[in-house]
Structures are given as structure tokens and as C-alpha cells.
Amino acid sequence: MALKKESVFDTEKQHHNLDSKIIVAFEKISEVYRVLQWSQAQENKISPIQLQILVFIKYHTPEKCKVGYMARDFNITKATISDSVKTLLSKGYLNKVVDTSDTRSFTLSLTSEGEKLASKVEHYTHELKAPLLDLDASKKEVLFDSLTELIYKLQRNGIIDVQRMCFTCTNYEGDKNAAHYCKLMKTELTKNALRMDCPEHLEVVK
Ligand code: SF4
User: Fold this and answer.
1) Ligand 1 test: best mutation among 173, 195, 204, most atoms within 8 Å of CB?
2) Ligand 1 in contact with 166 (CB < 6 A)?
3) Whole-angstrom distance, CA of residue 201 vs CA of residue 169
4) Which long-range contacts (C-beta less than 8 Å, at least 24 apart) are formed by 126-130?
5) Which residue of 4, 41, 86, 143 is 20 to 30 Å from 182, comparing CA positions?
6) Model pLDDT for residues 125-183, shown as the tens digit of each residue
7) Which of 64, 155, 166 has most ligand 1 atoms within 8 Å of CB, for mutation?
8) How far apart are CA 109 and CA 92, in angstroms?
9) Residues 87, 32: Cα–Cα separation, whole Å
10) DSSP code of 2?
11) Are 144 and 48 part of one and the same domain?
């Protein structure tokens, strides 16, 4: 069924439409991220994308710490990532490890200065934790469940690219609703145990 194009920002209509209000709420949350990232980055004389790159490299394996992979993961162009990587290399926060089998390809790792900076800036999300801690556990479960489903659908519709979540993993078995099983860990997964960024994630080949 084709979706009727109606602006979610039309306040008259928005007041009576829960979907529109949720979409506007997402926009407000994305503003929170933008503001928090920006202020942490500015304080440390880097850009928000450079902040994201440092934190990403701190927690991901070398085969993912490549310009192309990060561009897909952040949903931005390779050129934008390349520019930020160049700056981080020149500031001494990153090391470049050239692939011996293909000299055009390289992985990135953190220098000791990069480690220090990543450990400092990664806490930019702290302000989001306090209100979440106050939220009732059952509400959090519903929120996580809904977000998991939404992110999966956005990925399936091609809006976002790389996701390392259970629903997009070859090792996942289940109905994406109530029954979840990880073939790798050979274990049932509760809804709360579903992962958003799993190191063992194996992308389903489409
Ligand atoms: S390997 Fe990780 S992402 Fe894949 S199903 Fe198991 S827990 Fe989920």
C-alpha cells in the first residue's frame, strides 16, 4: 500500500497522529546526539566525524577499521571519511597499516594518543544515560524491542547500510518476534539479549 505523503511537521495533523509524533521525537533525539557529539568534539579540537572514527576503531576488529567499511557503517561518503582519517593521521591519533597483498588497501588503528582521546570522547553519550536509568524496566524493554524492529526494517528497505544486529546475521534463527536463537553460541536469546553491535555478526548474503 502506497504511503500517503503528509508532512509530519504539520502541527495541526501531527497532534492527532502518533506515527508523526514518534518521527518528530526521533528528530529531537538525533539533535541530542548532534549537540553532545559536537560539544565533546569541539572541546577536544576534533570534528564529530573524527570522534566517531576514533570510538569506532577502539571497539572494532582491524578488518572493519577501513575507510570503505566505516563509510558504509556511518552512512556517509568515502571521501568524507578519508578527509577525517587524513586529519587524524596528521595529528598522530591513528596508525595506517598497509595490506601486504594490496598496497592500495589499509587498515587503521589507534596510536597511544588516539587511545587516550577515544577513551575520553566516547563518554559523550553520558547525558542520555541518566534519563534512561530513571525509565521503568518494562518501558525500556518495549523501547528496545520497537527500536530493534524499526532499525531492521530501515536496513531491509535500504535506508541504512551495515548493521551488526542479530536480525541481519547468518547465525540468527527465529521469527524476529518472540523466538530468537544464536547458532554460533548455541543458545536461545531473550529479547533483551539480542545484540545491536555483535563482534561475531556474519552478514546475511542477499
Ligand atoms: S552471532 Fe551475534 S549477531 Fe549473530 S545471532 Fe549470534 S549474537 Fe546475534
Assistant:
1) 195
2) yes
3) 6
4) 127/32, 127/36, 128/32, 128/36
5) 143
6) 999 998 999 999 999 999 999 999 999 999 999 888 878 999 999 999 999 999 999 99
7) 166
8) 11
9) 26
10) P
11) no
Cell of 166: 542479530
Q: Using H for helix, E for strand and C for coil, what is the string for 157-192?
A: CCCCCCCECHHHECCEEECCCCCEEECCCCEECCHH
d(CA 166, CA 199): 11
Confirm whether pTM is higher than 0.70: yes
Give kind and range of the element (H or E) at residue 146.
helix 137-156
What total of structural domains would you count in the chain?
2
Same domain, residue pair 99 and 43: yes
pLDDT digit string, tens, across residues 26-73: 999 999 999 999 999 999 999 999 999 999 999 999 999 999 999 999
The full DSSP string for 41-95 is HHHTTS-HHHHHHHHHHHHS-GGG-SHHHHHHHHTS-HHHHHHHHHHHHHTTSEE
Q: Are residues 72 and 99 in the same domain?
A: yes
Q: Which domain holds residue 161?
A: 136-193
Q: Which cell numbers hold the place of 189?
A: 536469546
Nearest to 189 by CA among 168, 205, 170, 167: 167
End-to-end CA distance of the chain: 24
Ligand 1 pocket, 180 CB below 6 A? no
Q: Is residue 1 part of a domain?
A: no
